[in-house]
Design goal:
Layout lengths: L4 E10 L4 H8 L5 E9 L5 E8 L4 H14 L3 H35 L6 E10 L3 H9 L4 E6 H22 L1
Antiparallel strand pairs: 1-4, 1-5, 2-3, 2-4
Helix pairs in contact: 2-3
């Protein structure tokens, strides 16, 4: 792969021993956008144990600063109100992204067997090598790559099915 490919890379670990240290290192992979750890206990309880989003909070702070600068035209009170309004808009944008990310994790939850962990990487790869080396170093049982656009369509299809079944139930 010479150009950057946007993938969702899934690393399955039997148990959580290698998954958590792999997560900490995954935050520094070239091209990483987001990563999360899904863990299912032996009795089937699923938890999102850890999560990382590159640039989290940037939209909120950036919008607040822009709003504050625009608010300077109205004096100190205008700056305060502008910052607050900008931060609120930026936070709303981030909340929307968080909701979409949560839907993706729900779709992936079916891939986590009892007693196992899944490290999910949202990454733009110029080469599969860094993620593959990470998987080998920490003992991932499987590595699966899904093209990000295809995964996004899987999530949208799952959302449509959920909406249809809630309409049928109501």
């Amino acid at each position: 792969m010479t150009d950057h490919q946007h993938h969702v890379v899934l690393l399955t670990f039997e148990g959580g021993e290698g998954c958590h240290p792999a997560f900490e290192e995954a935050e520094h992979l070239p091209g990483i956008r987001q990563c999360a750890v899904l863990e299912r206990s032996a009795d089937g309880l699923l938890e999102v144990r850890e999560g990382y989003t590159r640039g989290a909070g940037v939209a909120t702070v950036g919008s607040g600063v822009v709003g504050g600068l625009v608010g300077l035209l109205g004096g100190p009170l205008g700056m305060l109100l502008g910052f607050a309004a900008g931060a609120a808009l930026g936070n709303a944008a981030e909340e929307g992204r968080t909701t979409a990310d949560g839907a993706g994790l729900i779709v992936l939850s079916a891939r986590v067997p009892d007693g196992a962990s899944l490290l999910v990487l949202d990454i733009r790869e110029s080469s599969p090598e860094p993620a593959d080396r990470l998987a080998a170093r920490f003992g991932a049982a499987t590595v699966e790559r899904i093209v990000a656009d295809e995964f996004a369509e899987q999530v949208r299809a799952a959302e449509r099915r959920a909406e249809e079944s809630s309409e049928d139930a109501g």
